Structure formats: structure tokens, C-alpha cells
Amino acid sequence: MSSGSQGVGKAEVRLKWDPSPWQEPPHHLDIIAATYSADAPYGRPVYVVHFDSRSPDGTINMSRHSQTGQGFGYVEVMTLELDRLASSFARVVVGVAIHQNRGPKTFGDISNAGVLVVEGYKELLKDDFSRVAGSTAATVAEFTRSTATAWAFHEMLRGFDSDPMVFTAEMGDSP
Question: Is the pLDDT of residue 3 over 50?
Fold first, then answer.
């Protein structure tokens, strides 16, 4: 799926989930983006952006972050200004990982989890993670540069069984 002939300029990835039940440790989910160079679009990421970082050039950053899921609607938001990314980048993969601080937790253990990818008011992807319910992390979106300036969106819902650190290394592998 692509957003049209102009390509995707600026996208937003939004994440929501319900807080854990009373007297249980909080569920902590994170949006993670990995950038790949034109020279190695399926190699190692050039850099990774997550809750306590942003891209060196400021084109990918977290504008909202939650460690508990408390709040209304989407409680975590990452903005990707793809039209500002250097021409040396050809691919950006975005995923969601569940912190595994207190034993294994999968998307099936988290109530009301959901991800929404938008470009302006246009919905590119909306999913509830039910297809990856047994996973601890999942990729959700892939943005690829088709020319020097145009970026295309592709749904990339694929589950992983790894913690956030391992997930950042494997999320961009080809399926």
C-alpha cells in the first residue's frame, strides 16, 4: 500500500494499550524505528530511535511516551519526517516491543493494544496486534524510498519473540 504518487512526506505512528490490572506491574510498550542506508537496506540499521532517543538530524522523534498505558487514546506517538531524511537512507522500519522486565509478556497479554499509522488525516494502518498475539515484539510498517525523494508505505505486521534490544537488531531482516 502506498499513499499515492507524491509519496509519504511525514507520518505518525501512534500506540495505545490499557494499563495493567491493579497491583500488577505496569505494561511498558515502545515504538521503535530503525533506519537503513541505500547501500545496505537490509543490513545493520544506521541508527535506531526509541523512547529515550531521537534521530541525529531530528527527523524521527517521540512526541509522546508512556511507560504504563495510562491516558486517553493513543499514549505514545512517534513522528517520522521522511521528506527531510538524507538521500543516503532508503528504508525505515517501525515496530513495537514489549519490555520484558517481569517475565514474558506477549501482545495477547496486553488488553486493548493498538497501533495507528497516519499521514496527516489519512489512515495508512490500524491494527490491534491480534495476528501477532503470541509475540513479544512486532514490526508494523516499512517505508521505502522509490526515488531520490518519494517514500512509499508498506504494511509490515510480523511478530518476533525477543526483547527490545534484540528486536532492534533483527526487525529489519527480510522475511
Answer: no
